[in-house]
Every structure is written in structure tokens, then in C-alpha cells.
Design goal:
The complex is a heterodimer of chains A (566) and B (312). Chain A has 566 residues and is α/β, with parallel strands linked by helices. Chain A has helices spanning 2-27, 39-52, 87-96, 109-119, 133-140, 148-153, 155-160, 163-169, 197-202, 211-225, 241-248, 281-295, 309-317, 330-343, 387-398, 400-408, 432-442, 451-462, 472-479, 489-492, 502-522, 527-544, 546-564; strands at 66-72, 98-103, 125-129, 178-181, 192-196, 230-234, 266-268, 273-275, 321-326, 349-352, 368-370, 376-380, 415-418, 424-426, 485-487. In chain A, 44% of the residues are buried. Chain B has 15 helices and 2 strands. Classes of the chains: A alpha/beta (566), B mainly alpha (312). The interface between A and B is large, with 55 and 43 residues.
Chain lengths: 566, 312
């Protein structure tokens, strides 16, 4: 008995001590000493560097070791824990002495960023969405390193990013802090409609150009296939995607971006301002069209309810969708095309020129937009010991060599040397399958990219083949989607109010209202009801302060246009 | 030696006497203090303009008093959120609370042991599945395209056209509460089953001799015996009355047109506080809910004390 008691006391004491230590380690989490690189110091010191030092002092990637921490600020994307897993990073490690240590958000990016900010424990490089307010918050707290001086020193970003675009990326103090990813001067993107080939043939290959023809076609699909086939499947209707495409078909030069939460406005060209979406006649008309499709069961009935993309992909893969409309149909439609055409060469999907309301010019219908600045940015934080080297690294991977290795593997394999226009010369042993594998393996972590350079390079090979033999994606990008995308740079930049401000509240409330209205009007019981819902939404939005937001956005938009010289 | 020191000494002596028990208690007390009480200073941010970069040095923030609370009361969503929170919680309480008790009483009447075990296992399985899974099961059951519910209703001729259950406001509360009952009923009934098992069998025997029917036995013996447990759980449920749910609503109310019936305090805090990064505001709203919950708990306990079954 006594022995048991003794053991008990010992065990309990051990427990008590462990608890105390656990508690202590938690409570003594003093704020870590901030890194010596204060923003202002960093900028002034490098500023003097550029003026005093000769260009020979430019740091060459690979001339010495480079190690830094990187983090992708996304819930659905983590940089791989082991860089060897990705061919391009493996190449960088082996040939350029770059060693990247990654941090993973594992789905909790908002929390992780909050913790890193509060602990002042930032990674050296953050890769994230350009519109993410966290980037702005980091800037406001003075945690970002300005890049202007480095941009002067290193060749690629300076060459490929126009000074106008760079101006748009600048923060209020006039400095550039963001290294854009997939910046471009020409259309990209893949928004549009994919049509089921087999169903199209079985219905006699009718002309599909106007909205009325679309409607007639969907009716025929329903008559012939009943509930077996979904006539029109809109992707992510809940964010306005597959429904927003239809909107762009009802007005020349309409922006798909008008439905985006960080824009939520239509361009009123006559008055040179941004106006309410709810009063736009084209929006009324397109929502009536959508609700008609809904009432007659010509559009997926679950479009607002089941938001998981799995079921949509399953329907596409089994060929049960007649027309698929999405702001990025290509990954799904091309996978479905590959699967279906393997079994039956006549089956699969093809993309068509966007639908338009009869009477409008089909060449002024844009199902999507492109942004000269891309969508992701890399920022270097003040935690970085040697920000210049990190910049040099980013600059290298967006240059021709970096881009080509990411897309076609190291030089000497699929490509060797550059032609007079700077494009790669493909070798005899060019292996399309290997290239596809390389791209697929590198794809998740293309930290910095240069669309303006790589798209022509990709096309150079594809265009040398007849259309039927071209890669599905390349074929339709070249023939359709690049021609049906409008430059929306002015509308996309800096229209998000800073978090915590009154305008940010208005923006959130109006977005909430918009999402409810979009769903309600898309599923309205009659055309009159659509009008009523939209009119009510306009009243509610005004009560929330929509006009104030529109005025603010107009100001920023005009400023952007001025910077871009539009 | 004064009286007080004598008492003190005896206290220390008493503590020393039970040193092994004390040592077992203290780790728990310390853990709770460190991880549950110390972080509570965080609620102060609800009265501040919180800047995330100050991190743990929260006293560097500016005090703003009740500003965030006023903002919440003046928010355009306030009325909807409060109504939904209260209605959903009440429905969950009224329907979700008695359901496991009824199940336990019913299972108690089943004499076939294997059948009873099977029913128990099946009913408590959903409790261990996450809402993500339950949500997708509910969604596919109610889908318009090939959902079993619509197919069944069509098959028996009750409807001609599929009903889009998950996008209709009038059905949402019903679906939400039913899904909750389905998920939790089996697990929650375990406690009541255990309580029923503790009822003295001689009471039933005596009642049987007196000629009481099975129903009367349940009514006059089983229910009164497990009443204290029912009341304790009722008090606890009152404390979380404003806890209308979070994951279940977030997952089942994907359709934005359901917002007017689905937005509750928790989903609002998540949207306003975390997604829009208004941490201080989120804290204030959460604190408001916590205060009301404590008040409700105290009130429920006070009422229960009159029946002699209170929690404290």
C-alpha cells in the first residue's frame, strides 16, 4: 500500500513538473527580436549601393549559396516540403546553389499569417494573391522590402514589365514592393464555353452563335436526352462564374469582372465612371435569360447549392454536360476531352466563340479579362537577410532561361539555344510527352512567371503542327480564348479598400447582398420577378452605402487608366 | 497562538495529509489556468482598435470602449443574425434535446438484445463523422438531379418536379435541425441509456404486481428517476443556447440566397472577424454572445434549483 502511494506521488510530481514546463514555454513567448533590416535602412543602403557600385557587382545566381524561407499564402496551395520533389527546384539546388526552406499553411493560411504577423516571425519570401489584403497590411506595417533599386540592377523584370504596369503595382509611397507573377502585355486566360462534341453532332451540328441559338440548342438537348444530360452547366455559379459569362454576351465590351467582389461595378462609358451593376440593363436582361433557363430546367438546378467541383467534373468526364461555361473551363474540359476521346474519337469537348445577343458585334464580346499584372505577387519581407539575392533569384526564374527550364526542362534536352527573336530552338529529340510531364510537375510552384515570354514559346512548337494535332489547350487558347479576353488591368488594381475601414465594411456588405441577389434572380419565377429582385437589391445596396464605394472605386479606376495611358 | 494561525496550520496539515490527491489535482488546475484563463486577456481586444502587428503586446493598442459593440448592434445584419441565432438554437433545443431521451426510452423497451445493439450502433455512428461528410451526404440525398429524397417523392407520386430543398428558405431550418438530430441522437442517448440502466429493477417488479402497464412504468418510474440527469443536461444546453452552430450551417447553407435564414452569430463572426480580418470586432461579437450565454446558464440553474436538481 505504501509502495503504491509512493509511486503515485512520484508519477504525479512528474506530471506537475511537465505541466509547469509546458506552461512556462508557452507564457514566456516574448516577441522575438525584430530583424535588423528595417525597411528604410534596406532601401537607403541598397540605394547607395546602386549609385556607388559598378554593374559588375550584380550578384549572379549560383555564384554563391542562397538560402531563404518561402511561403505560399493560400489555403489550397502549399509549397512542397522537399524541393527535390519538383524538377525545377531540384535543378536550382543542384546547379544554382539555391536552397529554399518552405513553410506550409496546410489549409489555415489566414491563421498562419496572423500568427506570423503577431509573432513577427515572417518568412523571407511570401507568394500570394495580389488582391489579398494581408499584402497591404504587411506594407502598412513596414514589413516589405522595396524592389525599385534591384529592378534597375537586374535585367528581366525591367525588360518584361512595362513601366506603366509597374506604376500600377506601386503602393501609396510610390515604391514597388511586389514582384508580379504571370505579368503580361497580351491576352491570356481561358474563360469561355466548352461544347460536348457527340451531343452536338447527334443534334445536327446547328449554328451556335447567338443567345437565342444557345437557348434553342439547350431545349433540343433536353428534349432528346431528358434528365440524362445537363444542358448548360455553369461552373461556380455561387461566385458568379458560369452565370457571369452569360452576362458578357448581352453587352458589347462588357467586363466579366463587373461581377467580381473586388470590382462589383459596370463601366459607364458615357459618364466615364463606374456605375451600379443592379441598374445595368444588360444585367437585367442576362439574369432574365438565366432564370428562364432555370425555370425550364435547361441549366443545372443545383448550381447554387452544390458548390463542390467534384460532381461537376464527374458529369463532364462522363459526357453528361452539353455545354459547360466557366471562367476557366480548360483544365476540366481538356481532362474530360482526353478521357472521352480515348474511348470514342468522335466524343469529347471543343470550345466555341462566345455567345452574343443577336444584333451585337460578336468580336466585342469578351467572356473574360486579362490583367497585365497577372494575379499573384512575390513580396520580400524585412525578415530576409539578403533581399537582393532573393530578387536576383526571382528575376532569373522569369527570364528566358528560367522560364524555359520550367516549361521544357534544362537546355540540351528538348531545346538548345535561342533564335534571333529570343525564342527557344527545339531539338530533334523534342518529346511532347516529357514536356507535358515537366510542365505538370513544375506547375504547382511556378513562383514567378512571365506570360509574355513563355506563351509565344509554347505556341511556337504547337503552331508548327496542323490544328487537329495541336495540344487541346493550345489550340483553343490560340483560336478562341486569347481573342475573347479584354484588358481589365485598370479595373482590377487597387479597387479593394483597406481592411478595417468603413469602405471595406460597405464592400463586404454589398458583396453579400450581390451574392444573395445573384442566386435569387437566377432562380426567379418570372421575368418580372427578376426586375423586382434587382430593383430591391439596388435600394438595399444604396442603403448600405454602395454609391460611396462606387465613387471611391471610380476615382481609383480613373487613376489607373491615367497611369496606363488608356 | 491565535485562533487563526491554529486554523491555518490545520489547513496546511490537512493539505499535507492528502498530498497525493493534491498532486494529482494541481496539474489540471495549472493547465486550466494557463491555457484557459491566461488567454482570456485576449477579450480585452474587443475594446481596442487591435493592430495585429503588436501581437502579444496588446496594451499598445488604442482603447475604443464599446465602439465595436455599437458597430455590431448597428450592423445591417444584426436583426437577421439575432433572429436566426435564437430561432435555430430554440429549434435545436426543442427538437434536438428530447430526441435522444425518447430514443433511449424506446430502446429500453426493446427486449431483443441483438436488435437493440444494432440500432444503438447504427444511431451513434454519424456522431463520429465530420460535418463535411454529413453535409455531403445530406446534399446528395436532397439533390435535384438524382437525390434519393426527390426520387422517392416522385416515385410515390407526391410531386411531379424535383424540389430544390437546399435553396429554399422555408426548408432550411427543418433540414438543419433534422441533420443535427440524425447526427447526434445516438451518441447523446448513451448517457440516458446509462441512467435508465441504473434504475432499481425492484421498482418495476413492484409496479408490475400493482398492475402498471409498460407505458405507465415508463411514465411513473423511468422518467422520474432519470429526471435529475435530464435537468442537468437541460441547464448545460441552456448555456449554449446562443450557440446555434457553425460548421453545419457553413456547409449546408452554401447557397447565398439562404443567408437571410442561415446567418448566425458564429458564421458572422467568422466572416467579419476572420475573413475580413476585423479581429477586435469579431472578439466583441463573440464576447457579447458569451455574456448572454452565461446569463442564460445562471438563470436556468436558478430555476432548476427550485426543483432541487441544480448544477451548483
Amino acid at each position: 500500500m505504501k509502495k503504491t502511494r509512493k509511486t503515485l506521488v512520484m508519477v504525479a510530481t512528474a506530471l506537475l513538473l511537465t505541466t509547469l514546463f509546458a506552461g512556462c514555454s508557452k507564457t514566456t513567448s516574448e516577441p522575438k527580436p525584430s530583424t535588423p533590416n528595417d525597411t528604410t535602412n534596406a532601401s537607403t543602403s541598397t540605394g547607395s549601393d546602386t549609385t556607388e557600385e559598378k554593374p559588375a557587382d550584380v550578384w549572379q545566381l549560383g555564384s554563391s549559396e542562397l538560402e531563404f524561407t518561402a511561403y505560399a499564402h493560400y489555403g489550397w496551395l502549399d509549397l512542397p516540403a522537399k524541393m527535390e520533389d519538383v524538377p525545377f527546384w531540384k535543378y536550382l539546388k543542384e546547379n544554382k546553389k539555391v536552397n529554399i526552406k518552405t513553410r506550409a499553411a496546410q489549409g489555415n493560411h489566414a491563421q498562419l499569417m496572423t500568427t506570423m504577423m503577431a509573432d513577427n516571425d515572417l518568412p523571407d519570401l511570401i507568394y500570394g494573391n495580389r488582391f489579398d489584403p494581408d499584402i497591404l497590411r504587411l506594407y502598412e506595417a513596414g514589413k516589405l522590402v522595396p524592389l525599385d533599386d534591384y529592378m534597375e540592377k537586374y535585367p528581366n523584370l525591367k525588360k518584361w514589365l512595362s513601366s506603366k504596369s509597374a506604376d500600377l503595382l506601386r503602393f501609396p509611397d510610390g515604391k514597388l514592393y511586389q514582384f508580379p507573377n504571370w505579368y503580361t502585355s497580351q491576352p491570356n486566360g481561358s474563360s469561355g464555353y466548352a461544347v460536348n462534341k457527340k451531343i452536338y453532332k447527334e443534334l445536327g451540328s446547328p449554328t451556335l452563335e447567338t443567345m437565342d441559338q444557345l437557348y434553342d440548342y439547350l431545349v433540343k438537348v433536353k428534349q432528346k436526352y431528358g434528365s440524362e444530360v445537363i444542358p448548360y452547366e455553369p461552373d461556380r455559379a455561387v461566385d458568379g462564374q458560369g452565370v457571369g459569362l452569360i452576362y458578357t454576351g448581352f453587352k458589347e465590351n462588357a467586363y466579366y469582372r463587373s461581377l467580381n467582389g473586388s470590382t462589383l461595378a459596370v463601366v459607364d462609358e458615357a459618364n466615364n465612371k463606374l456605375a451600379s451593376l443592379f441598374t445595368d440593363p444588360a444585367f437585367h436582361e442576362s439574369q432574365k435569360f438565366v432564370s428562364k433557363l432555370y425555370r425550364e430546367k435547361l441549366i443545372s438546378q443545383d448550381m447554387f447549392t452544390i458548390t463542390d467541383r467534384g460532381p461537376v467534373q464527374e458529369k463532364l468526364m462522363s459526357g453528361r454536360v452539353a455545354i459547360f461555361g466557366s471562367s476557366d473551363p480548360m483544365p476540366y474540359a481538356s481532362a474530360a476531352h482526353a478521357a472521352l476521346s480515348k474511348k470514342d474519337p468522335d466524343a469529347g469537348y471543343f470550345m466555341i466563340w462566345p455567345f452574343h445577343k443577336a444584333g451585337l458585334d460578336k468580336n466585342k464580346i469578351y467572356t473574360g479579362g486579362y490583367d497585365q499584372l497577372g494575379w499573384n505577387v512575390n513580396v520580400i519581407t524585412t525578415a530576409a537577410k539578403d533581399p537582393e539575392k532573393i530578387y536576383a533569384f526571382l528575376d532569373y526564374i522569369t527570364g528566358p532561361e528560367g522560364m524555359l527550364i520550367q516549361f521544357f526542362g534544362p537546355e540540351g534536352g528538348n531545346w538548345k539555344g535561342l533564335d534571333e527573336s529570343g525564342q527557344p530552338i527545339f531539338t530533334e529529340q523534342y518529346n511532347a510527352e516529357e514536356v507535358a510531364d515537366i510542365q505538370a510537375a513544375n506547375n504547382p510552384v511556378m513562383m514567378a512567371g512571365n506570360t509574355g515570354y513563355i506563351d509565344p514559346a509554347k505556341m511556337k512548337f504547337e503552331l508548327s503542327k496542323p490544328p487537329e494535332e495541336r495540344n487541346w489547350l493550345a489550340r483553343y487558347q490560340e483560336s478562341v480564348t486569347w481573342k475573347t479576353h479584354i484588358d481589365q488591368t485598370a479595373l482590377a488594381s487597387n479597387l479593394t479598400p483597406a481592411p478595417g475601414t468603413e469602405l471595406a465594411d460597405i464592400s463586404t456588405n454589398v458583396l453579400d447582398l450581390f451574392l444573395q441577389t445573384l442566386s435569387a434572380s437566377s432562380t426567379a419565377k418570372s421575368d418580372e420577378e427578376v426586375d423586382k429582385i434587382l430593383e430591391q437589391a439596388e435600394k438595399d445596396a444604396q442603403a448600405l452605402g454602395y454609391n460611396q464605394l462606387l465613387e471611391w472605386r471610380t476615382e481609383r479606376w480613373l487613376e489607373n487608366k491615367k497611369k496606363l495611358g488608356q | 497562538m491565535s485562533q487563526a494561525t491554529a486554523n491555518q496550520k490545520s489547513l496546511w496539515q490537512r493539505l499535507w495529509k492528502q498530498i497525493d490527491i493534491q498532486i494529482m489535482v494541481w496539474p489540471g488546475v495549472i493547465l486550466i489556468f494557463i491555457f484557459a484563463y491566461i488567454p482570456m486577456y485576449g477579450v480585452l481586444t474587443g475594446f481596442m482598435d487591435y493592430n495585429i502587428f503588436t501581437g502579444a503586446r496588446i496594451f499598445e493598442n488604442k482603447w475604443v470602449g464599446l465602439k465595436h459593440f455599437q458597430d455590431f448592434f448597428n450592423a445591417p445584419q444584426f436583426g437577421t443574425i439575432m433572429r436566426n441565432t435564437i430561432m435555430i438554437s430554440l429549434l435545436k433545443l426543442i427538437i434536438g434535446f428530447p430526441a435522444p431521451i425518447i430514443l433511449a426510452l424506446m430502446l429500453n423497451e426493446v427486449r431483443h438484445r441483438i436488435f437493440k445493439r444494432v440500432v444503438q450502433s447504427i444511431t451513434y455512428l454519424p456522431y463520429f463523422m465530420s460535418w463535411v461528410i454529413i453535409g455531403s451526404i445530406v446534399m446528395s440525398l436532397l439533390s435535384t438531379e438524382n437525390g434519393s429524397v426527390n426520387m422517392l417523392l416522385k416515385g410515390i407520386g407526391a410531386i411531379d418536379e424535383s424540389i430544390n430543398f437546399l435553396s429554399m428558405k422555408e426548408y432550411f431550418w427543418g433540414i438543419l435541425v433534422s441533420a443535427n438530430v440524425w447526427k447526434d441522437i445516438g451518441f447523446n442517448s448513451i448517457i440516458f441509456m446509462a441512467a435508465i440502466a441504473g434504475v432499481n429493477p425492484s421498482l418495476y417488479e413492484a409496479a408490475e404486481i400493482d398492475g402498471a402497464s409498460r407505458f405507465k412504468q415508463m411514465y411513473l418510474i423511468t422518467i422520474p428517476t432519470i429526471m435529475p440527469i435530464i435537468i442537468i443536461f437541460m441547464i448545460l444546453a441552456m448555456g449554449s443556447l446562443l450557440n446555434a452552430g457553425f460548421e453545419d450551417i457553413l456547409i449546408l447553407a452554401q447557397n447565398p440566397s439562404l443567408r437571410p435564414v442561415s446567418d448566425v452569430i458564429d458564421t458572422y463572426v467568422y466572416r467579419a472577424g476572420l475573413q475580413n480580418q476585423r479581429y477586435a470586432y469579431g472578439v466583441a461579437v463573440g464576447l457579447f454572445r458569451a455574456v448572454i450565454s452565461v446569463m442564460l446558464l445562471t438563470m436556468a440553474n436558478y430555476l432548476a434549483r427550485k426543483t432541487g436538481n441544480s448544477l451548483w
